[in-house]
Amino acid sequence: MQLKRSNFIGRLINYFSFTAIVLFNFRKIKHYKSIMIFSNPPILPVIGVLAKKIFKTKFIFVSYDVYPEIAIQTQTLNKDSIISKIMNIINGFVFKSVDKVITLSEEMSSTLQKHRKNLNNNKLVSIPNWDTSNKLLSKKLNLNKFEHLKNKIVISYFGNLGIAQDEKIIFRTLNSIKNDNNIHFIFAGHGKKIDDLKNFVKDNEIENIDIFGFLQGSEFEEALAITDYSIVSLQEGLHGLAVPSKTYTLLRAGIPVLAAMDKNSDVVQSLLKYNAGFHLDKSNHDEIINTLKSISTQEDSRLKMNALKLYHEEYQRNLGTSKYITVLNELIKE
Fold first, then answer.
1. Of the candidates 201, 149, 148, which has an alpha carbon nearest to the alpha carbon of residue 177?
2. I want to staple 241 with a disulfide (CB 3.0 to 4.6 A). Which of 65, 66, 100, 184 is the partner?
3. Strand, coil or helix: what is 153?
């Protein structure tokens, strides 16, 4: 079932209905040597435990988010709630039974290693995600929708603006550029904090911004083509619990990234290592914006080339899939 995700009860029904359908088809799993189960919905990995015990199927768990910690940190759940306790019990079974755990980053592996006492450390493998687009970005697109932005510095934010994102640093950035006609901000996405964004823009009389819903297809490609820099964000305290997936799409498009997240994260460290973006936080956002205003054409081109280089050397699709294949082959041979 696909009920509204902003409602907690709706999310629970979605989770349980999907898991129920998988259980209904459970017998089919016996025909497979291994199965791969993702962390969302959080109760689904129980299927992997049952398959391993009943059918001796190899069980790979892919951690996109760390539950219940991420829900507790974002105040979606109370750590003493029944649901949190149930999730912890499920984790105990899952991490004791799993054959391999794939995480999106080294810091996520470290988090699980620290907080999952039943998890054998040699079962952890870090494999970043990648951009799933089959299209190559063209800078010769028909940019009618963004014609008014052609001669401006465009800073964009794409994707969800919800409980996992730090909206405050985005709002500060918006406020710091509102009087500069040479800079324009694009927001394209949804999320629980979208109304907060609209109210902030209205209350602070910010005019150099366009707010869209999710853009798809050619419209999204055009938005990428006109973008000079883009923000990815992760709420303070979520370091090691999640990774902003839009990062890969931005790098694939050769867009330098402004990372509003923990400086020690894999994403920020990669950006700084390749000089493919900047670390953005509440203490330096004015400094970063001033840097973007004064940056030379040569340095701007270098940043964009470095973003592409980072994508091709660390986040390209075939790099990630080859690591998945290695994990699968190793398990099947055991």
1. 201
2. 66
3. strand
What is the tens place of the pLDDT at every residue in 73-123?
Answer: 888 888 889 988 988 998 999 999 999 999 999 999 999 999 998 888 899
Task: Give CA–CA dist 186/224, Å, rounded.
Answer: 10
SS3 call for 304: helix
Query: What is the rounded CA–CA span in Å between residue 252 and residue 309?
Result: 9
Angstrom distance (rounded) from CA 250 to CA 247 = 5
Mean pLDDT of 199-212: 94
Structure-block tokens of residue 133: 């687009």
Give the Cα separation of 294 and 153 in Å (integer): 11
Question: Residue written as tokens 């000089």?
Answer: 275
Domains assigned to the chain: 8-20+27-129+318-333 (3.40.50.2000), 144-315 (3.40.50.2000)
Q: Tokens at residue 179, please?
A: 């009087």
- The pTM of the full predicted model, rounded to 2 decimals, is 0.86
Q: Report, as an integer, the average pLDDT of 189-208.
A: 93
